[in-house]
Amino acid sequence: MSKVLAKKAQKKDALYNAAFDLFTRKDDSDTSISDIAKKAGVGKGTFYLYFKDKYDIKNKLVARKAHSIIQKAGEALAAADIPGLEDKLIFLVDNVIDQLSGNPALLRFISKNLSWGIFKNAMTEENGEIDENYTYVLDLLMENAKETHTDPDILIYLIVELVGSSIYGSILYSEPVSIEELKPHLFNTIRLLTRAKEK
Question: Residues 24, 108: contact at Cβ < 8 Å?
Answer without folding.
Answer: yes
